[in-house]
Write a structure and sequence with these properties.
The complex is a heterodimer of chains A (440) and B (624).
Chain A lengths: L3 E4 L8 E7 L3 H8 E3 L10 E8 L4 E10 L10 E7 L2 H13 L3 E2 L4 H8 L5 H12 L3 H11 L4 H23 L13 H27 L1 E6 L6 H9 L17 E7 L2 E7 L9 H16 L2 E7 L6 H10 L4 E6 L12 E2 L8 H13 L10 H22 L4 H14 L8 H12 L5
Parallel strand pairs in A: 1-7, 8-10, 8-11, 11-12, 12-13
Antiparallel strand pairs in A: 1-2, 2-6, 3-4, 4-5, 5-6, 9-10
Chain B lengths: L4 E7 L3 H12 L4 E5 L13 E3 L3 H10 L4 H8 E7 L9 E6 L1 H13 L4 E5 L2 E7 L2 E6 L4 E9 L8 E4 L2 E4 L11 H8 L3 E8 L2 E3 L9 E3 L22 E5 L2 H9 L5 H4 L13 H7 L7 E6 L6 E5 L7 H9 L9 E3 L2 E8 L16 E3 L9 H20 L12 H12 L23 H12 L4 H23 L1 E2 L3 H9 L9 E2 H6 L20 H12 L1 H19 L16 H10 L4 H6 L5 H19 L1
Parallel strand pairs in B: 1-2, 1-9, 2-6, 9-20
Antiparallel strand pairs in B: 3-5, 4-5, 7-8, 8-9, 10-11, 10-19, 12-19, 13-17, 13-18, 14-15, 15-16, 16-17, 21-22
Helix pairs in contact in B: 1-10, 2-10, 2-12, 3-4, 6-9, 12-13, 13-16
Classes of the chains: A alpha/beta (440), B alpha+beta (624).
Chain lengths: 440, 624
């Protein structure tokens, strides 16, 4: 295969950057760009060579080159990983030189594709690698790594096993009707199906968390004007993002930014204060606020201490009460916190901000499953499997025969993944003979 | 006309051989069928029954394609039962106790009466290739030639009988083994495996005390196997059930060291679904009893068969364990149970046509291909007989896919996945089993049987009429409106079904699990006169419409991959990125389609991805 190269660490200024070179001539091309005492071309796999990247005239950067030899590399090809200092200027120049010496710039995902084509990673793993590349924070990275090592499959395998047991029970009853075997010993068929559905449902719910890990959770800050929403945003972000004035209604558009709360990217949106107004521009802002609240995952409602809730405020609370929400009483530096169920803070003095962050973390952590479905394909598989189990439950519930339901259970099992080189039917048959005593 | 040069030669006249020979002869091939003993044609050395779960499906499919097994079974049956009637229609299965001798004689007569078919008693010693012709040399030195050869040798090849510590070279049922042919086949390039199977004790009827035993009668209403059998008959015999007990198990356990299965005398692989009683007692130690069926061997004999007591323990142990069982206290053994080891081929060498991939004109069928069971054998025999003929005629061979027939599932499993034990058909193996029912085998396959030339025009027209009648009835049921009335609501309440407040389509009522077509007759004023087999089809199609539709959707997906052809001349060494194991397997099996490639064990979804990418780029390259 031709040799490809690309920056493998995120773009942007960092401590170091890694450029990966992969292909038949990876070592040769790298050697012609990085001048070193020890020969890169002759280096053994899994060794590191120190050298300087040069454009032939000037040194570009000092580098360490990790050498991997085919097939013992990520892609299964010869690979060099060039660690250089993280300036984008030197990275660009090194890549330029690699290209001049015969490499081509890798397409997005091409390394993984080669790894896949060389049988180095399975499709699921390839997807997980993609997620590592795309993941935004440490926890998301952890979930992706977990899946790369097979962690994700565990709850799925358990559900699959339960379903295969049911199939074996139906199979043995259908194929060996004369054997005196109580195939449903140890549990009611319908009950087991319902349990499987519950588990799938849990997994599907946890997918939301997986999604959150990749895409971030949206948290809307809302309230009537001039309660200090923008101040709260700035305090959460620990920087000045929103303009803060004493004039009510300053924020007329949604101001957003990310922070990392316990490894989860949380996007805060400071919404325009909600009130009846004759100002057309402000009214548009209010409408936007409502839309934003609707689509947010979490809402923080902000009011002031020292007074009762206004009818408008009660109306807002009514709107957010179905969602995970946090009620905040700001300006406790002026008068003491007094409302039940509210968190007292002073955005101005940075007081109580940690409590809000902790509450957000509690909400995002509030899923039982630790295995996340972290991509579309798996999500779809779980959804489909759940649909099939639903049909099977309906069949059994209506009083039809369990062998009729087995067709949908088989579908569910195959949605949850086919074992390599063995069909669901073969698995069922094997299980029949493992579990039941049969035969003439 | 000489009797030495043939189009097709069939070696072995068991259930596979008989179907193969009849099919070939009927397709105009000058055919010879050779067997070690003419009195063992279509023998049933194990249980005297035809059909059963999934096997009954095969018998009906054989019939729809123009085979013989169903008709002979109908003619010689002693008792029939439709199994699984309490379950869904996919798993209803017909089984018949047959009169073993009568079955043999009936099949032998049909072979004898078949035009183009020559029957010879002989032991084939060698099969050699001479250009395009095969030369078969029998034990006397006489030679036959044939353009195509079908090997259906059952358990005869290098057969070895084992009874406890005693073992000797022998075929099934006291017959001679076939020694030497295996080696000759290996020279031709066939690679062989060694399997084992067993059969239970036969005992004398007079020594059994039936009084306290559970009786098992046949069905009141006899359903024939063949779609052509019209006559109604009655069940003639009754079967009985007894059980092993802790004492039986103790005797077995105490004598395990004398069982060849445990002391290492047997190294062939036995079937899991047909384990010996010692195997069952060891593997399922906490089970306190095992069921044993006592079945007659025929009307003209007092020999009884003990289904469930297959064993290779020594004779004295066989006797003492039987005597512990209810009804068998004074049992008199007529034939001892035995295990038999035999040579068979590795079916991975076969194409889905049952022709050896690398040995043109050589076909395998039945136990020789690693299966077990009369019905599995007959199904393969029929396909091998058809395809040997098609090969000689230069016509397209018949391959049924997994969505068309159990026969398709059977052969696809064998030639794609291979087998490491004698393979038995099971409904659980057929993923599209709601479509592949035993009741609609004729609707699925008559057309194919007719196209091949094994189904007469007359039968084909009948089939077309039946089809039309069923379709019309389905339409009528869907269009018929049932108004609410006092009568129907009384009926519905009695059935535990929701009463009607407005009119409802008859189809909707039939779909309710608690109702059926027959019982709704009084409320369905314009119901036409129709055969039960016909309205039953309409009923099933309507009642399970949703499920059937879902299966069709699955089939459509399946067919997509079956239709993605892999070029015959593909060079797998050029497919960059295939894992070594997958490359070797694909190279060896050369599957015709992506679908079949994906079912080969050792070929992962990633390999299929690679193959698809390769094929796509190849197409692109050849276009540009």
């Amino acid at each position: 295969m031709n040799t490809i190269c690309a920056l493998s660490t995120p773009r942007g200024k960092g401590g170091i950057a890694v450029i990966r070179v992969s292909g038949d001539d990876a070592l040769k091309i790298t050697a012609s760009v990085i001048k070193s005492k020890k020969s890169i071309e002759e280096a053994k796999g899994y060794t590191i060579v120190y050298g300087s990247a040069t454009d032939g005239v000037n040194n570009i950067d000092e580098c360490l080159v990790s050498v991997f030899r085919a097939p013992n590399s990520f892609t299964g090809e010869n690979v060099c990983e060039i660690s250089c200092h993280g300036s984008m200027v030197s990275v660009e120049r090194i890549i330029d030189e690699l290209v001049k010496n015969g490499a081509s710039v890798a397409q997005k995902g091409e390394f993984t594709k080669r790894a896949f084509l060389n049988g180095k990673v399975s499709l699921t793993q390839a997807e997980a690698v993609h997620d590592i590349i795309e993941s935004k924070t440490d926890k998301a990275l952890y979930a992706a790594v977990n899946r790369l090592e097979g962690g994700i499959t565990k709850p799925i395998i358990e559900i699959r096993n339960t379903l295969l047991d049911l199939l074996a029970a139906v199979g043995v009853a259908s194929d060996f009707p004369e054997e005196d075997i109580d195939t449903f010993a140890g549990g009611d068929f319908l009950l087991k199906l319902q349990d499987a559905k519950k588990e799938l449902n849990k997994l599907r719910m946890s997918a939301r968390r997986g999604e959150a890990l990749n895409q971030g959770i949206v948290c809307a800050i809302c309230g009537i004007p001039n309660t200090g929403k923008s101040s709260l945003l700035n305090a959460l972000l620990e920087r000045k993002k929103a303009i803060v004035t004493d004039i009510a209604g300053t924020t007329r558009d949604v101001v957003e930014d990310f922070i990392d709360i316990d490894g989860i990217p949380v996007k805060f949106g400071d919404t325009a204060g909600i009130r009846e107004s004759s100002d057309v521009v402000e009214n548009i802002g209010v409408e936007k606020s409502f839309d934003y609240i609707k689509s947010a995952d979490i809402c923080i409602f902000v009011t002031e201490s020292g007074r009762n809730l206004t009818p408008e405020e009660e109306d807002i609370i009514e709107r957010i009460k179905e969602k995970p929400h946090i009620l905040v009483e700001n300006k406790t530096d002026i008068s003491p916190q007094s409302k039940d169920g509210f968190v007292g803070i002073s955005a101005k003095n940075n007081f109580g901000i940690d409590i809000i962050k902790k509450k957000i973390s509690e909400i995002t952590d509030n899923t039982e499953s630790t295995a996340f479905i972290a991509n579309e394909r798996q999500f779809e598989a779980v959804v489909r499997a759940e649909e099939s189990i639903d049909k099977a439950i309906k069949t059994v519930g209506e009083g039809f025969f369990s062998d009729l339901a087995s067709i949908d259970i088989e579908s569910a099992v195959s949605y949850l993944g086919e074992a390599e080189g063995i069909s669901v039917n073969q698995e069922t048959v094997n299980r029949i003979f493992e579990k039941f005593c049969l035969g003439k | 006309m000489d009797n030495f040069n043939f189009d097709v030669a069939v070696i072995g006249a068991g259930h596979a051989g008989c179907e193969a020979a009849l099919a070939a002869a009927r397709l105009g091939m000058k055919t010879v069928i050779i067997t070690i003993n003419l009195d063992s044609i279509a023998n049933m050395p194990c249980n005297p029954s035809i059909g059963g779960t999934a096997k009954g499906h095969l018998v009906r499919e054989i019939d729809a394609l123009g085979g013989e097994m169903a008709k002979v079974a109908d003619k010689t049956k002693l008792q029939t039962r439709m199994l699984n009637l309490g379950k869904g229609p996919a798993v209803h299965s017909l089984r018949a106790q047959a009169d073993r001798r009568a079955y043999q004689m009936e099949m032998k007569k049909r072979l004898e009466e078949q035009e183009n078919l020559y029957i010879r008693q002989a032991e084939v010693k060698t099969v050699e290739k001479d250009d395009d012709l095969y030369v078969l040399t029998i034990h006397t030195g006489t030679k036959f030639t044939a353009k195509a050869v079908i090997i259906s040798t059952g358990t005869y090849l290098e057969g070895k009988i084992i009874i406890g510590e005693c073992s000797y070279s022998g075929g099934p049922d006291g017959l001679f083994p076939s020694n030497g042919l295996s080696e000759s086949l290996e020279k031709l390039g066939v690679s062989m495996m060694r399997f084992k199977t067993g059969t239970p004790t036969r005992v004398h009827e007079r020594s059994i005390n039936f009084e306290t035993l559970e009786k098992q009668y046949g069905d009141e209403e006899i359903v024939p196997f063949s779609f052509e059998t019209e006559e109604k008959e009655e069940n003639k015999v009754c079967c009985y059930v007894t059980y092993t007990n802790l004492e039986t198990h103790k005797i077995i356990k105490d004598n395990l060291h004398r069982s060849p299965l445990f002391n290492g005398l047997i190294d062939g692989v036995g079937p899991r679904y047909c384990p010996s009683i010692e195997d069952k007692v060891v593997r399922f130690a906490d089970k306190e009893r095992h069921q044993v069926f006592i079945e007659p061997m025929g009307e003209g004999t007092h020999e009884m068969y003990l289904q469930g007591m297959s064993t290779s323990l020594p004779e004295d142990v066989q006797l003492s364990m039987l005597k512990t069982m209810e009804g068998l206290e004074n049992v008199e053994i007529m034939r001892s149970a035995y295990a038999i080891e035999y040579d068979c081929c590795d079916p991975l060498q076969l194409n889905p046509t049952l022709e050896f991939r690398e040995i043109k004109g050589l076909f395998g069928a039945g136990q020789f291909n690693g299966t077990s069971g009369y019905e599995e054998a007959a199904a393969q025999g029929l396909i091998a007989g058809i395809n040997a003929s098609m090969g000689i005629l230069g016509k397209e061979m018949l391959v049924l896919d997994r969505s068309e027939a159990y026969i398709g599932v059977l052969i696809d499993d064998l030639v794609t996945k291979g087998t490491n034990e004698p393979y038995r058909m099971l409904t659980s193996r057929a993923e599209y089993r709601l479509l592949l029912r035993q009741d609609n085998a004729d609707l699925r396959l008559t057309e194919k049987g007719h196209n091949i030339g094994l189904i007469s025009d007359e039968r084909y027209w009948k089939y077309l009429e039946k089809r039309k009648e069923i379709e019309a009835e389905i339409e009528r049921i869907k269009a018929t409106n049932i108004p609410p009335s006092k009568e129907i609501n009384e009926f519905l309440e009695k059935k535990g079904s929701t009463p009607l407040s407005t009119g409802i389509k008859l189809a909707e009522l039939i779909r309710r699990p608690e109702l059926n077509y027959e019982e709704l007759a009084p409320f369905d004023k314009n119901r036409p006169e129709m055969k039960k087999l016909h309205w039953q089809q309409a009923e099933i199609e309507i009642k399970y419409e949703g499920y059937i539709k879902r299966q069709y959707e699955q089939v459509e997906k399946f067919k997509k991959n079956e239709k993605k052809r892999i070029p015959e001349n593909i060079d797998y060494s050029k497919v960059y990125g295939l894992r070594i194991e997958a490359r070797q397997k694909l190279e060896k099996m050369r599957p015709e389609s992506i679908g079949r490639a994906s079912r080969i064990s050792g070929v992962s979804p990633a390999d299929i991805g690679v193959l698809l990418i390769y094929l796509a780029t190849e197409v692109k390259n050849s276009e540009s």
